[in-house]
Amino acid sequence: MTSTSTEADKLQLYQSWFCPFAQRAWIGVLEKGIDFDLHEVDPYNKSEEWLKINPKGLVPVIIHKAKRIWESGVILEYLDDAYPDRPNLLPNDPFLRAQDRMWVDHTNKKIIPSYMQLLMGQTDEKRKEAAEKLLQEIRFIFDNASFTKGPFLSGDGHKLGLIDIYLAPFGVRIKPVLGTHRHFEIPSNWSTFHKWVKAIKSHPSVQPTCASDEKLIEHTRKYAENTAQSELATAIRTGTAIP
Ligand SMILES: N[C@@H](CCC(=O)N[C@@H](CS)C(=O)NCC(=O)O)C(=O)O
After folding, report:
1. CA within 20 to 30 Å of 210's CA: 13, 20, 173, 227, which one?
2. Does 243 map to a domain?
3. 0.70 exceeded by the pTM?
4. CA of residue 104 to ligand 1 center, whole Å
5. Which ligand 1 atom lies nearest to the CA of residue 44?
6. To 5 degrees, how large is the angle CA 139–CA 79–CA 88?
7. Is the pLDDT of residue 240 over 50?
8. Nearest atom, ligand 1, residue 242 CA
9. Coiled-coil region(s) at which residues (predicted)?
10. pLDDT value at position 5?
11. Which domain holds residue 30?
12. Would you say residue 1 lies in a domain?
C-alpha cells in the first residue's frame, strides 16, 4: 500500500477461481505489488447485489477508490495508470507497447475462439479444424514475438508483462484441459512456447492464481459436453463475439 492510500481506497477484486479472464486481473495486482482484498463470487448467479457491482454480471471487476472497473484487459491497463510507481505491465517503448496490444488483439480474435471451439466441438471434423486453427494461431504469436531477452512475450521478453498475463490463463490450461478433454498437444519441438509456459507457471505472480488441474478439468467438462450456459459458451455456439 502506498503511504497516501487509506483502507477505504484499498483495491477490491471480484473474481471466480475457474475464470481465465479473472485470473488476468489477479496476476496483474500481484505483479504490481498492490494491496488488495479478494472476493470469490459466482458470476452465474445474477443477484441484485452482484449486478450492483457489475451490471454486466461478469468477473473480473475491481473497485478502486469507490469506482468500479470491469473487462480484464481494461483492468490491467488501469493498474499501470493508477499505480505508475509500481513495476509496469506494459513496456515503456511505444513500439513494444503496441506489440503487446497487437498480441492481445490476436488472443481475443483468434486464440480464444479456436481454443473454445476445440473444447466445445462435438464432431471429429469440428475438433480437427479447431485444433489446426489453434496451433496455427499460437504459432503465429510465437514466430513473430521479439524474444530478444528472455522467455516472455511482452516487450523484449525479459519480464512478465501485459500480453503474458493476458495469454497465461489459456497457456496454462492447454495441457490439462485440452489435453484431457481433446487429446490436444503442442508439438514438443516448439521450444519457445514450452519455455514460455514453464516461465509463466513458475512465476511468483502467476503460481498463486492457478487452480489445480483436476479442478479445471472437472469445471470445463460442461464445455466439453457442450452443456455450459455461460455467455462465453453461448457466444461460441452461436458464432457471435466473445463477451
Ligand atoms: N471479456 C471479459 C470476459 C469475462 C467473462 O466472460 N467472465 C465469465 C467467467 S469466466 C463470467 O463472468 N461469466 C458469467 C456469465 O457468463 O454469465 C473479460 O475479459 O473480463
Report:
1. 227
2. no
3. yes
4. 16
5. 17
6. 65
7. yes
8. 1
9. none
10. 54
11. 7-82
12. no
For 180-204, how does the pLDDT look when each residue is reduced to its tens digit (9 = 90+)?
999 999 999 999 999 999 999 999 9
The ligand 1 atom nearest the CA atom of 231: 16
Do you know the residue count of the chain?
Answer: 243
Asked if 220 and 181 count as a contact pair (C-beta separation under 8 A), the reply is: yes
Per-residue model confidence (pLDDT) at position 3: 43
Please tell me whether residues 116 and 191 are part of one structural domain. yes
Mean pLDDT score, 23-39: 98
Residues touching ligand 1 (Cβ under 6 Å) are 16, 19, 21, 43-44, 57-60, 71-72, 230-232, 243
| Best residue for ligand 1 mutational test, from 46, 231, 240 (most atoms within 8 Å of Cβ) | 231
C-alpha cell at 202: 513458475
